Amino acid sequence: MRDRSGIALWAGVECTVNRVGDAYFNQLERTGHHDRITDLDLLAELGVKAVRYPVLWERTAPDGLGSADFSWADERLHRLKELGIDVIVGLVHHGSGPPWTSLMEDSFVAGLEAFAGAVAERYPWVRDYTPVNEPLTTARFSALYGHWYPHRRDSASLMRALLVETRATAAAMRAIRRVRPDARLVQTEDFGAVASTPRLAYQAAFENHRRWLSLDLLYGRVDAAHPLHTHLLDCGVADEELAQVAAAPCPPDVIGVNYYLTSDRFLDDRLELYPAWTHGGNGRDAYADVEAVRVREEGIFGHHHVLREVWERYRTPIAITEVHLGCTPEEQIRWLVEAWEAAHAARAEGADVRAVTLWSAFGAYDWDSLVTQARGHYEPGVFDVRGPAPRPTALAVVAKELAEAGRSEHPLADVPGWWRRDERLLYGAPRATTRTLCEPRERPILITGAGGSLGAALARACEERGIHVRAMTRSELDITDAAALERAIAEVRPWLVVNAAGYTRVHDAEDEIEACRRANVVGPTLLAEACRRHGSRLLMFSSSFVFDGSKPAPYVEDDPVAPISAFGAAQAQGERGVLEALPSALVVRTGSLFGPFEARSFVALALSAVQRGEPFRAADDLFVSPTYLPHLAHTCLDLAIDQAEGVWHLANDGVVSFASWAKMMCDAFGLPSRAVHPCPAHTLGLRASLPRQGGLHSRRRATLPTLPEAVEHYVKHRADAVLATL
After folding, report:
1. Fewer Cβ within 10 Å of end Cβ, the chain: N or C?
2. What is the CATH number of domain 8-424?
3. In the chain, pLDDT over 70 holds for what percent of residues?
4. CATH no. for 445-725
5. Would you list the DSSP string of 449-508?
6. pLDDT tens digit string along 462-509?
7. Helix, strand, or coil (residue 546)
8. Cα–Cα distance between 541 and 588 in angstroms, integer?
9. Residues 176 and 120: beta-carbon distance below 8 Å
């Protein structure tokens, strides 16, 4: 189960079925993995050696073993066996079991024992099991914080739930080992640590003892000498019960370390330094409980530190069983690489580290609300499932490199993640630190046409995300000059070229056809040819002007182009020329652009006129998909980093007439929308023919945020920009 470097690549499918009240949140259904057995072949192609995979009790036998339905698990576990992928079967994943039991009831123990035995008999080739995933974390969320069923909020309930989970795990493994004596317990837990201000050192010490409690119980170490023994008794746990657990230990064969950026916490009694929502307490002291990464100058403890702690405490083989970060693709890469390198470092020091696990292989929904709400917040994993089929992300490329070579050559992998940079610090006393700048060690992104609105937005997005960028204006680099292009790309050595240069004057193009053609056809084609020669990827832009507007619905990527203006014709020819020269190019069609720093956009012109008390005429028979530049820039970077190819439509989710859009913006700024005068397009004296329907929709993935969200961000950013000049 290991590669030649000694560390195996595992994967996991987010499979939480948690109960909130009487509602169940099922990740397998929400990500669509429930209906796609072909997902398993995608994991095999990455070089995955083992997969944490669900045969969940509450899904398989919700009404008891007599009516259990194993058909879904049968098909998938047999397929994994055919693919040569080892399986670590999970039986309960952040759940509380079927509706007739819960973490607080002894029936959970007997029920899970019976179900585990049935699973072992059905799949005798499976050796590895996780009967209850992250028992302490699940108990905290269900019985201390009240997020999940049974929604308790006290320490006694927490300890009761944890004891039930411990007994259930031991009972399940006994049942499994009656069928397969060499079965192994792969026990996962989140091992985040707690730091604090001096006043709260006692609370941090308590929580740092508690972080080990689920494992200590399984190892039979919770006796009268244990630091939490008195606390357990105070919570109503009987000495006899603790003695029974200690007398029949069920030590893990592999300890699964789950560790997230939010795992490490910091407790601070200086409440005035933190927002009210972070405030809490223990009955003795009030304090803020925040992510250590946001306040602790030393930052997070990190994978390496945690692996060493676990090894020193238990001397049991270890695997990192969840590596996931809900963030941008480059930060996901950096988090995975950091975990991988930590595993190697700990192994070199003597710890028996076996594997690193790609978690949320197919992403996850609504973990930003701890899956207590169905808001549709999706975090991609190794694959992005929002399109018609799972799309490999940048993580897939990096994961395959790690599996095959033991290291990644991705151009963004060597830069420190945001959790290693000073901008991570949000709270606490003012610090005399300087901003940590990323060393330009990696190959940069080259942006052409950086002096324009689109190029500037892309450059800002790169800087915000710690991505090394070389931005060139048109005066610095003319993309229609083949020799200049060759020199620039040879000098900069970009891994990605973003072409934001182009002729954008739609109506002037009717009289300046050749200038438009050179900028939008000749230049991009030359750029594509240069990228092909130098091994650089290419991102270029087009628009809805490649369509004639006769379609009654928004246009999608595979609709045939049919431009009705010189500008649209040049864009269509440019798309074709680029994709013929470089089929791997990413071509993004957008709607009408607007952003907080643009003075000549349609929105800016409308707002300026109304602010001056002037009427503003806008067409009510031309429809567009407005596109907010910061949203576009960040999403384009995500796609480019993921090595997306071909034509994509990106616009904020919404189609409006120009007149309706202008009124919407006036309302957002508290300006009189009656100053906007709707009129037919033909009365505006426009030289170019514009598509009546210019709306865009994507079949390849979810679009940008909605138009109301874009307007909200625009208002806020415009206000911030004005304040910055005062």
Report:
1. C
2. 3.20.20.80
3. 96
4. 3.40.50.720
5. STTSHHHHHHHHHHHHTT--EEEE-TTT--TT-HHHHHHHHHHH--SEEEE------TTG
6. 999 989 999 999 999 999 999 999 999 999 999 999 999 999 999 999
7. helix
8. 5
9. yes
